[in-house]
Design goal:
Helices cover 0% and strands 41% of the residues. It is an all-beta fold and 110 residues long.
């Protein structure tokens, strides 16, 4: 990043105030997590909780593994796209067709 500083003097006391910009092009978000869902009916589309994506300074590519879809800011359900800092993200997938079965998907940002 780039820094800008200024000195402030009041009475005989001087202090320096510095502001530094973020690094351009950071597409790796801060940590986030989805809450697992249990006891879901078989073969039912199941949505995750919404998470807020933070820690990126440029639009970041998003992709999800087969069977999953995601939505950004309540938009359409898609399988690839781009996300910005402060956007909300939800994922969805269809629960297992068998009782007690488990399904999962992996979402990649950056």
């Amino acid at each position: 990043g780039v820094s800008v500083s200024t000195e402030v003097t009041i009475g005989g006391l001087t202090n320096t105030f510095t502001v530094t910009t973020t690094t351009a092009g950071d597409t790796n978000p801060d940590a986030f997590s989805f809450v697992n869902k249990t006891n879901q009916p078989p073969s039912t589309i199941t949505e995750s909780n919404a998470v807020v994506i933070t820690g990126i300074t440029s639009p970041s590519p998003v992709a999800i593994t087969a069977g999953g879809q995601f939505s950004i800011n309540g938009g359409s359900w898609i399988t690839s796209g781009s996300i910005n800092n402060g956007d909300t993200l939800k994922i969805r997938l269809t629960s297992s067709a068998t009782l007690g079965g488990t399904v999962s998907t992996t979402i990649t940002i950056g």
